[in-house]
Amino acid sequence: VPLVESGGGLVQPGGSLTLSCAASGSGSSINAMGWFRQRPGEEREFVAAIRWSINNIRYADSVKGRATITRDRARNRVLLQIFRLEPEDTAVYYCAGGRPIASTIETVRGYTDWGQGTQVTVSS
After folding, report:
1. Assign residue 26 a region: left if phi > 0, alpha if psi is -120 to 50, beta otherwise?
2. DSSP 112
3. d(Cα 42, Cα 78) in Å, to the nearest integer?
4. Is the separation of the CB atoms in 72 and 84 below 8 Å?
5. Cβ contacts of 30 within 8 Å, gap of 6 or more
6. Secondary structure in 3-state letters for 11-70
7. pLDDT tens digits, 18-59
8. Alpha-carbon gap, residue 100 to 13, rounded angstroms
9. What does the pLDDT look like over 89-120, one tens digit per residue?
């Protein structure tokens, strides 16, 4: 399923932003979507994910308590809101879609479809 992210940009520390990931078509081949991020020279890391059937939501410890992932079923998209942004949140954020199981929902290998990435820079 083609995925298209939007909403990245430059944000001041302490600010917030909303990232959007839209799935083309019906998106019926996936049952979960997630967000990952990657800093230069580092591996891609899990941020948040949501599974449709049981509304299972997961967050990485690094964003827990200051991030919200929601599904907009009518528009076939998933939104990620991050509050109280820190410079350490600077990265390229990737949207992912697939059919992960409980043990893979927080891993890159749990997803088959990926967006092109959107840059988020937290700086004053």
Report:
1. alpha
2. S
3. 25
4. no
5. 1, 23, 97, 98, 99, 112, 113
6. ECCCCCEEEEEEECCCCCCCCEEEEEEECCCCCCEEEEEEECCCCEEEECCCCCCCEEEE
7. 999 998 876 678 899 999 999 999 999 999 999 987 768 999
8. 33
9. 999 999 999 999 989 999 999 999 999 999 99
